[in-house]
């Protein structure tokens, strides 16, 4: 009797606090001789299938109510607190109220399929490589990885973050490769911050205590299980955040900008050539705009006379100094890049076309910029896109301005000192005690 | 701490940006970049400088000549800069043309000045002009199709250079002023009748002043002595003409009773181009040797008399003569040089036809 | 973990930066012939002090750096050695900053005021010095990979204008270069660098073998830096130049290269190497300061203060002549440091070993 009363009050309380949600589903059901109330969110649970499954499981038993309850105990967890129950409902669990016994059990129902199927990667394009990519579902991602890396060495630990809202985070590493100090560090940070909310990578950065103002991403992100596998074997730690369709690899290193695992699907020589190409791309993207300003404004004696004359000719009539010219065009270029990310795919080509006309033709014809500059900027933009990982190309894009500013003041000396500054910045960055510029093996032995 | 540091860094960058306005960096299109600098003596004290400037135009490049008079080259440049809408920038000077009279007087100070300043590159070529300089530069600016670098191309090894043109740069001349054992030859040019420039042999320079002259055939030997390839030069004989394919020079030097003795062997590999009549291979070889040997001997004798060691024979005796005496190479040893020359000609092939005289 | 490679790169890079700058002028001024003799003597001295120094350091446990070795030996010894080391570092930084800014204005930035160039050089190297010693060494690795091929390329093509006859006369007539002050100035190239080995022992462990390999790798740079200008211009001409090697590079003419002046690339690489050296020395100065005098002040402020001091002193040096004068004064200090430090470390090492045995 007491149980019944408790149930009633519990139900009404739940009703009071979340009953206004239209997708809250309540259903009375008889299992044999026990009356139960099923509660759950119809947006997350496939009810007909769940009930069918439940009935099937219980009716095959056809025993006394006690046996049925025992059966339910086996497949679910007993809940008693109201808060706990509400949380469980929002996590997509099915709650079974057994009035007579005053028992609340939550079980995993048949969920509605709300996830994408496994698709090919959308930002980590690759040719001639495995095409399955991570999606938003945490367990799918871990499953994908287990397929890629079927070994007892793969250690997966899961954490739930947040107070009012829960968010899953999984920490993966390869037991015999990883640097124990790194794992210790990460686990300590994770465990001491379990009450924080994680939505974005910035939250994760903050949670792990990584520098907020760093221009270089402390994580390396990837969509490809193959990539994650190779990083795990190299002794790195991988984080999966629920609803984030990519893996966060910690720590990132400089070499990640130039090398991906998929390169190894080509022959060795081609792999080396590809990576060299990316290194050249990074240096070109960094140096080229600065070098243009330096050669045009400060140190034209470095150009051969024939080149100097034709450069001077292309700049004839340009009304402002080279530095302003470059900054102007760079900003427009960055705007185009940003716009083409932002726009829907159907309008995207328009931007490219308009941008192409503005940059390629009109600006030069109007004698606003020299056409050599257009070539230089195009080359630099293309070059900065050869770098692996979108977040890394951001880094290069920002560093470019550093060399540019110094070059406008000190000419070629500025280009070189800018390069030095970038090197110094890269060299001084460490992630959880591991340098960004770590040499092979440093990660493992620590 | 981190924010603080980045703030300081940003402040520093802004400060630098602000200060960058303090000194003027002119863009390339606001600079006048002369390619050729001509120098002559206007009076005892003053130079006259000619700057050949390529001027950009819609349909190509035209040449403009700027002249100025002043006590130093830099003064002239400064004066003309003030009068022009753009700044004159000597950084791209490629050829320096010196008036013959001025060269005979001596160009030591001019060359030292160029070496001292960063402006004119030390690898600019030096030439001596036989013509009146006003006339010469006037003609240069009138030439059609000129892209302003005509004179440069004339000397450029991958463009118009020929093995009988001496290739002498400012630093060569500067070195010859200071070196104990090496002088240089500077090419002499004049206006051609059908072509723009005509080469008229080379000037023998000692201590920065022109002493003597050698003709273009002798310049070829001079170049061969420097180790430059004479490839491409055609020698005309009574029996026909041959093309020099390769050349080599072997030396052996020794000092006997303070007398320098040099044994020289000039090796030539040639190809037959044309023949008159039916001479044998041996005849052609002999003929060529007969042509070259006296030419070489005459040149060395002439140079010995002028005490200018443009061939750098003294270099070969650096091993034998101690440094303290090396200083007197030109005056004490060089005039007494004894040499023994053999010319060895090999006919490498005879073109598409079989060898004549068979 | 063994980081010998970092040390090797740093050793080569900072030596290259120092050698290719003033060293050729000093050697060419000190003797008129047989330049290899003074160079080889210098290389021997280099190896001697290096092995003595490394041997001395080996007596102490790895976590002891030069400062703790001296401070634990008593106040007088600490004063006797740390003060000269500090002063030596300070003056050599002043000379490098001032000297390199001067050549920058001479060769390619004639419009830019001297102070602005000194500000950049000091600002950038202080930034790196603040980031700490590991950052300095890692930057050294990157710089080595990026720019050293360029230096090697330039060293190779600078043989373009060589006239081998200028090698003669091969032997020196007398050893009069020992009486030339410029010969002692040339020890700047070896005097400045090796001391860092005593400072980094705790943070960047290295093997002595690799240091000696690095020192061997530097020998060709010593020889080439002097012999390339000699072979291109000859002794008589080369001795009239302030920077013979720079002018020798300036005479290179490459028709296929898209840039005109090789000198710029060469000089800029050297300047970048020197930036590394300046930041390393700055770091060492601050290390001495913070360990002995002001342990409470954060290194950040010390670096800023020291570089400000250097900047102000540099501003007060009006001409190249005064730089030379400072260079000469620095020579006395230099010999005290490069001979005194290794020998004293060996003596202290043997002493501590003996005391350890007794205990």
UniProtKB/TrEMBL annotation, chain B:
It comes from Aquibacillus koreensis. One of its GO terms (biological process) is spore germination. Gene3D superfamilies: Nutrient germinant receptor protein C, domain 3 (3.30.300.210). This is Ger(X)C family spore germination protein. Belongs to the GerABKC lipoprotein family. One of its GO terms (cellular component) is membrane. PANTHER family: SPORE GERMINATION PROTEIN B3. It is a lipid-anchor. InterPro entries: GerAC_N, Spore_GerAC-like, Spore_GerAC-like_C, Spore_GerAC_C_sf. Residues 201-351 form the Spore germination GerAC-like C-terminal domain.
UniProtKB/TrEMBL annotation, chain C:
InterPro entries: Spore_GerAB (IPR004761). Keywords: Germination, Membrane, Transmembrane, Transmembrane helix, Transport. It comes from the Bacteria. The keyword Membrane applies. GO terms for biological process: spore germination. The keyword Ribosomal protein does not apply. It is found in: Membrane. The chain crosses the membrane at residues 6-23, 35-54, 66-91, 103-130, 136-159, 186-204, 210-234, 265-288, 300-320, 326-350. GO terms for cellular component: membrane. It is a multi-pass membrane protein. Coiled coil: none annotated. Belongs to the amino acid-polyamine-organocation (APC) superfamily. Spore germination protein (SGP) (TC 2.A.3.9) family. This is Spore germination protein. It comes from Aquibacillus koreensis.
């Amino acid at each position: 009797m007491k149980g019944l009363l408790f149930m009633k009050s519990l139900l009404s309380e739940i009703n009071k606090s979340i009953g206004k949600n239209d997708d809250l589903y309540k259903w009375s059901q008889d299992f044999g001789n026990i009356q139960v109330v099923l509660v759950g969110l119809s947006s997350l649970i496939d009810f007909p299938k769940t009930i069918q499954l439940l009935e099937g499981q219980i009716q095959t038993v056809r025993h006394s109510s006690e046996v049925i309850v025992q059966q339910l105990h086996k497949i679910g967890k007993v809940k008693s607190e109201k808060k706990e129950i509400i949380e469980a409902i929002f996590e997509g669990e099915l709650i079974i109220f057994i009035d007579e016994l005053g028992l609340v059990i939550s079980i995993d129902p048949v969920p509605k399929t709300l996830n994408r199927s496994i698709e090919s990667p959308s930002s980590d394009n690759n040719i001639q490589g495995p095409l399955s990519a991570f999606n938003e579902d945490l367990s799918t991602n871990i499953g994908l990885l287990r397929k890629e890396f079927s070994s007892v060495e793969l250690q997966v630990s899961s954490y739930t973050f947040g107070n009012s809202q829960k968010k899953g985070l999984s920490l993966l590493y390869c037991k015999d490769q990883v640097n124990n100090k790194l794992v210790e560090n990460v686990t300590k940070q994770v465990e001491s911050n379990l009450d924080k909310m994680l939505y974005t990578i910035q939250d994760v950065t903050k949670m792990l205590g990584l520098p907020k103002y760093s221009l270089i991403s402390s994580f390396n992100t990837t969509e490809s299980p193959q990539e994650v596998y190779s990083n795990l074997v190299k002794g790195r730690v991988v984080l999966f955040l629920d609803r984030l369709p990519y893996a966060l690899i910690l720590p990132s290193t400089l070499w990640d900008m130039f090398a991906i695992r998929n390169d190894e699907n080509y022959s060795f020589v081609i792999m080396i050539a590809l990576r060299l190409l990316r290194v050249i791309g990074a240096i070109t993207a960094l140096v080229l705009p600065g070098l243009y300003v330096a050669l045009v404004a400060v140190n034209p004696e470095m150009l051969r006379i024939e080149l100097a004359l034709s450069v001077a000719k292309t700049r004839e009539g340009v009304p402002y100094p080279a530095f302003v010219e470059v900054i102007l065009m760079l900003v427009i270029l960055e705007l185009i890049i940003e716009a083409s990310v932002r726009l829907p795919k159907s309008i995207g080509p328009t931007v490219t076309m308009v941008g192409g006309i503005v940059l390629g033709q009109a600006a030069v014809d109007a004698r606003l910029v020299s056409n050599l500059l257009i070539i230089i900027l195009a080359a630099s933009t293309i070059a900065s896109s050869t770098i692996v990982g979108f977040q890394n190309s951001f880094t290069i894009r920002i560093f470019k301005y550093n060399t540019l500013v110094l070059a406008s003041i000190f000419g070629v000396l500025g280009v070189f000192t800018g390069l030095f500054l970038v090197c110094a910045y890269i060299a001084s960055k460490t992630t959880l005690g591991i340098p960004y510029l770590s040499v092979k093996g440093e990660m493992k032995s620590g | 701490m981190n924010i603080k540091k980045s703030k300081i860094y940003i402040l520093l960058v802004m400060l630098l940006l602000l200060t960058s306005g303090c000194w003027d960096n002119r863009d390339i299109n606001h600079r006048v970049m002369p390619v050729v600098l001509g120098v002559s003596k206007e009076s005892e004290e003053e130079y006259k400088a000619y700057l050949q400037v390529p001027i950009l135009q819609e349909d190509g490049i035209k040449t403009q000549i700027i002249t100025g008079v002043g006590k130093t080259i830099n003064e002239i440049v400064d004066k003309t800069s003030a009068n022009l809408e753009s700044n004159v920038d000597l950084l791209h000077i490629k050829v320096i043309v010196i008036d013959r009279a001025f060269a005979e007087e001596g160009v030591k100070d001019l060359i030292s000045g160029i070496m001292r300043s960063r402006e004119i590159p030390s690898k600019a070529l030096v030439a001596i002009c036989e013509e009146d300089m006003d006339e010469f530069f006037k003609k240069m600016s009138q030439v059609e199709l000129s892209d302003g670098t005509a004179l440069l191309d004339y000397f450029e090894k991958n463009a118009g250079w020929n093995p009988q043109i001496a290739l002498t740069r400012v630093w060569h001349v500067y070195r010859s002023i200071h070196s104990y054992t090496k002088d240089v030859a500077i090419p002499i040019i004049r206006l051609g009748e059908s072509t723009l420039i005509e080469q008229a042999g080379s000037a023998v320079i000692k201590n920065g002043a022109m002493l003597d002259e050698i003709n273009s055939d002798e310049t070829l030997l001079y170049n061969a002595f420097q180790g430059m390839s004479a490839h491409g030069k055609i020698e005309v004989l009574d029996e026909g003409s041959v093309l020099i394919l390769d050349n080599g020079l072997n030396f052996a030097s020794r000092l006997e009773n303070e007398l320098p003795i040099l044994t020289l062997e000039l090796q030539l590999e040639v190809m037959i181009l044309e023949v008159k009549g039916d001479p044998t291979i041996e005849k052609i070889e002999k003929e060529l040797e007969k042509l070259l040997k006296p030419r070489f001997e005459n040149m060395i004798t002439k140079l010995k008399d002028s005490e200018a060691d443009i061939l750098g024979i003294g270099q070969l005796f650096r091993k034998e003569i101690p440094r303290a005496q090396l200083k007197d190479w030109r005056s004490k040893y060089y005039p007494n040089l004894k040499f023994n020359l053999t010319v060895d000609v090999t006919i490498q092939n005879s073109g598409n036809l079989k060898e004549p005289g068979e | 973990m063994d980081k010998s490679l970092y040390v090797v790169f740093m050793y080569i890079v900072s030596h290259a930066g120092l050698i290719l700058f003033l060293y050729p002028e000093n050697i060419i001024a000190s003797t008129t012939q047989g330049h290899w003799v003074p160079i080889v003597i210098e290389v021997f001295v280099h190896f001697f002090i290096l092995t003595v120094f490394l041997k001395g350091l080996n007596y102490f446990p790895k976590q002891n750096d030069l400062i703790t070795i001296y401070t634990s030996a008593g106040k007088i010894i600490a004063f006797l050695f740390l003060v000269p080391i500090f002063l030596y570092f300070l003056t050599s930084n002043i000379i490098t900053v001032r000297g390199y800014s001067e050549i920058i204005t001479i060769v390619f930035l004639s419009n830019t005021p001297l102070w602005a160039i000194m500000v950049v050089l000091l600002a950038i190297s202080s930034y790196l010095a603040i980031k700490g010693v590991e950052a300095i060494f890692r930057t050294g690795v990157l710089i080595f990979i990026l720019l050293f091929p360029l230096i090697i390329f330039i060293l190779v093509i600078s043989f373009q204008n060589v006239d081998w006859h200028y090698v003669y006369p091969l032997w020196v007539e007398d050893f009069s270069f020992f009486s030339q002050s410029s010969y002692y100035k040339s020890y700047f190239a070896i005097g400045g660098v090796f001391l860092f080995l005593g400072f980094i022992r705790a943070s960047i462990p290295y093997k002595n073998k690799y240091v000696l390999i690095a020192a061997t790798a530097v020998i060709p740079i010593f020889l080439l830096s002097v012999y390339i200008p000699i072979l291109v211009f000859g002794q008589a001409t080369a001795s009239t130049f302030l920077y013979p090697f720079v002018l020798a590079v300036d005479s290179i003419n490459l028709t296929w290269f898209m840039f005109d002046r090789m000198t710029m690339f060469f000089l800029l690489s050297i300047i970048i190497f020197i930036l590394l050296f300046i930041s390393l020395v700055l770091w060492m100065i601050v290390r001495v300061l913070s360990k002995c005098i002001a342990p409470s002040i954060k290194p950040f402020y010390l670096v800023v203060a020291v570089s400000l001091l250097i900047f102000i002193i540099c501003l007060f040096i009006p001409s190249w002549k005064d730089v030379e004068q400072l260079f000469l004064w620095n020579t006395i200090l230099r010999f005290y440091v490069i001979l005194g430090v290794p020998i004293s470390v060996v003596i202290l090492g043997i002493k501590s070993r003996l005391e350890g045995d007794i205990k």
